[in-house]
Amino acid sequence: MADASTGRWQPRPHPPLGAHDVHVWRVPLDDASRAESYWTLLDDDERKRAVRFVRDVHRRRFIAAHGALRSILAGYVDAEPTALAFVSGEHGKPALRDATGHPPVEFNLSHSDDLALVAVARARPVGVDLERWSEVEHLELAERFFSPGERRALRALAHAPDLVEAGFFAAWTRKEAYLKATGHGITRGLHHFDVALAPGEPARLIADRFDAQAAVRWAMFALDPAPGYSAALVVASPVTEVLQLSV
What CATH code is carried by the domain that includes residue 186? Predict the structure, then answer.
């Protein structure tokens, strides 16, 4: 599936969310005044989780991410942010709870360092993952967590360390986004499916050995949220538009 083609991240109010559209919101997390204003939106459990952070920066980022999530979702379901209630799926994936038992929208949140992404779709599973590039043993981690095909593709980039870094984090975010979208999380591991990872190659799910139709049923997109970050979006097909928005 091709990369998201909606251009730059757009600061704008909530646009209509079509049945086959996906909206991805970019949320900066280091605005202290925004985090302070979001504190009142959190429920008791979220506040308890926030105060457990030892460092102020981590507490502030948690508050900003979860406050923004409530604010964003409230605009789609015509409710106050404080009125939203969340439940967890079988493997821990959060979802909105409503009176019918069927969520009006599905969403996913990912945050890394000073940035977060919130993906929203209309009653269809969606996953998003965001990672700040960091100094890790790329090839060593790939040997542990990537499929044989992905390891071969990454080793082919070994002559160019910057490409290894880009390829590793591209693959990692695509794999995490897929696991989050399916709702299985890490329970099935990371080895049983393959994603495209070469820099410049369109994001796509190549194959899932537990699901022969997965590459048809799931759409995968690469996102470019900021320099030094990799991000990916996975959503159930078909997809009409991926709209990139900024709070």
Answer: 3.90.470.20
